[in-house]
Please model this.
Amino acid sequence: MSNKSLENPVVTADVPSLSQQLEPPKADDILLSVRHLSMYFPTQVGFFKTKPLKAVDDVSFDVKRGETIGIVGESGCGKTTLGRTILHLYKPTSGEVIFDHRPIQTKADVEFLRLHAQMVFQDPYSSLDPRMTVEDIIAEPLDAKGLYKGKKSERHAKVLELMKTVGLSPEHATRYPHEFSGGQRQRIGIARSLALNPELVVCDEPVSALDVSIQAQVLNMFERLQREMHLTYLFIAHNLLVVKHISDRIAVMYLGHMVELASTQELFQNPLHPYTVSLLSAIPVPDPDIVRKNKRIVLQGEIPSPLNAPSGCPFRTRCPYAKEDCADAHNPIPLREVKEGHFLKCLHPYAGKTKNQ
Model:
């Protein structure tokens, strides 16, 4: 975890696949393994014809216990779908999710996963039932699993403990969501996600709907909860500085593909994928001298539709360094390790780096 302060938040040829290349750490270090995970949605394109919308396409990575992996990319790149598919809120089209060394395949496996992995949703206004009190909202996972059944006082004490953990007062328990600010509502959602003492929490842009000052408070709370409860996070966001602050490693997604994965420091100091380089160039910088020195890279063209994704590299239609081999549909580009801990899905990784440095 990063210990940086948030005082000013802004908040080539036949390469083996990732699963073949990764030398897994000691078994006990890995909490979550994702292998060739895909999520396609059938979309009607005519009266009798459907076509798959490839929201997530062949994604593989591991998550160690206690770490935070940030997942970034433009809107529509598949970040949220990836998180929901990992938790089996969507049934994967193909691929495998392994949680705590247990492949998630059967209904019992999914129940096991949902006991130990939870989600914080993006919108605190729509993710809470307006007809339920705060106490009932937070206790909903406990009730769903049949915990504290017939033990009303113990259930109430558990809810108050969770509320205290996220900075809510006991008197808030009988109130309804509409009586709270956005930051308070998100705290309610976080408390609900912690009710079953999960090991993994998927955070789907949990601060994007909040004011900047509130973002800092919530992010600091996430860090505190990670230390106290030994949590592991998948932190989905589009604000790169927020992800930089909270993440140990960062994965960059484009059009359903994971195109780069590296430690936070490595990714910011030595981005190799042209798309990552363009994303980092768009980060607001308060110093005009730095702005003039580091010219922003503006990508040409629109993001292709997942219904009609380009052959070969998904980014090649917007990449200034694309070559003929990037379009080879018969030789899919794998996510490969180009240096220790730095994974890349690109045939020409140093082109962008050379030109922009």
The first helix runs from residue 18 to 21. Residues 1-27, 351-357 have pLDDT under 50 and may be disordered.
